[in-house]
Write a structure and sequence with these properties.
transmembrane helix; four-stranded antiparallel β-sheet; single chain; 335 residues; alpha+beta; 47% helix; 15% strand
């Protein structure tokens, strides 16, 4: 999830554990926010190239074993900062919970979190939450604000808002399960032969869902809103030369992304450039992770900038959330 959400979650968890202890409310919240953002500092590590940096993010710093081993030190620092050394054991619980919940909500996104290290490097990803979702973050901020303002019932309100955000996570899983069932029924009705299906939320919400279907000829993309009138999923098919994957299977960045994305990637030849794309994040015409790969393996991969146009994307997103049948703006532009 985004840094603001992680900081807010860390602060609210710290308050839930430490809130009625003697000491500064502001310091408690600040310490929790810092601990909540700490695992994401692994972004400063350079693993040698942009694809390696991508697939090795959320590794050791998000691993539950290492977080457990580090928690006693972080708890001692937090207790020292908050002048609550007599409450060290509560800070130990708070520190561990903050780190674990950071990893837990990251695993709810589609990016992938290798929290099983060193036992397994599998990138676990539920994929039921977008990396930024106001409906998850706003309750946390409201509870945090009420507590810091020294409202008489700030502690209770903070805990209630933490429960609301947690319930929203559960809702996202239920919505994803519901849409996934609809997608599989729709694909059967269309008699479409496919290998894999991915169902993830569109940006900023859990009402509109993006569907990616891996086929023999490439892949297909569609969107389904819980407010749609029909359960039928309309797909836009993208034809790709699938032999490129076999031809370039020995390239390190291709191997890395094939593993990391669990097969939801594409290779495309554009002129003399070989484009490697993670199909899970973004949408057709505007992907978050797209790389130019050297087929001769002489130069390191180069990441292409994501196509961003909020003036175009947000109105389309709002209309599509409401169940209106409007085509993707990026596909319109590409046609």
């Amino acid at each position: 999830m985004d840094s603001l959400t992680q900081a807010a979650l860390g602060a609210t968890v710290a308050i839930a554990v430490m809130g009625n202890a003697d000491g500064s409310r502001l310091k408690t919240a600040f310490a929790g926010a810092v601990l909540g953002t700490l695992p994401d500092l692994d972004v400063i590590i350079d693993y040698g190239d942009v694809v390696s940096n991508m697939v090795l993010h959320r590794t050791e710093s998000h691993a539950l074993l290492y977080q457990t081993l580090l928690s006693p030190v972080l708890a001692w620092l937090a207790a020292l900062f908050c002048q609550q050394r007599t409450h060290y054991w509560r800070w130990l619980l708070a520190s561990w919970l903050i780190l674990v919940t950071h990893t837990a909500i990251d695993a709810m996104t589609i990016y992938g979190t290798q929290f099983g290290l060193p036992f397994t490097n599998t990138p676990f990803a539920v994929g039921s939450m977008f990396i930024i979702d106001p409906l998850y973050t706003l309750p946390l901020l409201l509870g945090l604000g009420m507590y810091i303002s020294r409202h008489q019932r700030g502690f209770v309100f903070n805990n209630a808002m933490l429960a609301v955000s947690t319930a929203y996570l559960l809702w996202s899983v239920m919505a994803q399960w519901h849409v996934s069932n609809l997608v599989h029924r729709s694909l059967q009705q269309q008699q479409l032969q496919y290998h894999q299906v991915l169902v993830t939320p569109a940006p900023l919400n859990t009402v509109l869902w993006r569907i990616v279907v891996q086929t023999e000829q490439g892949y297909a993309e569609g969107f389904y809103s819980l407010l749609d009138d029909s359960d039928s999923i309309r797909l836009h098919h993208i034809i790709r030369d699938e032999t490129l994957k076999q031809r370039h299977a020995a390239l390190k960045p291709v191997q890395q992304l094939a593993w990391f994305s669990r097969g939801f990637y594409s290779l495309q030849q554009q002129g003399d450039q070989l484009l490697l794309t993670d199909l899970r994040m973004g949408q057709e015409g505007s992907y978050a992770f797209e790389f130019v790969v050297d087929p001769d393996n002489l130069t390191t991969p180069q990441q292409l900038p994501m196509r961003r146009d909020m003036a175009t994307a947000l109105p389309w997103l709002w209309q599509r959330i409401q169940g209106k049948s409007v085509p993707s703006p990026w596909l319109q532009t590409n046609q």
